[in-house]
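Sample pair:
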Amino acid sequence: MRQQHAAAVLLVGGARQDEAYRRRMAGYATALDAVGSRLVLVGRPPLPGDLPVTVVQYDNRGGAFQAADHLLTAGHRSTLSATAPPHSANTTRGSRPARLA
């Protein structure tokens, strides 16, 4: 990506948050910054320290609530939610607001 002069490199989705991952991401962020690019972590937690990284977080709860609210407001009373496995981070954190709506 550095050779292509990309304005930014986006890494999307989860990853194992161990020390090796943090070192690797810090290296990417520093190398990209040195050539005028930017590392963007989407759906991943921020890195420690003062690294040149942009972090974009998902709002699973807000999105689930808005979707359910829209359907209920439109008059739907029977809905189906197709989700990830029961102990997935997406279902344990994201689907409850839809049930609450």
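The chain has four helices and three strands.
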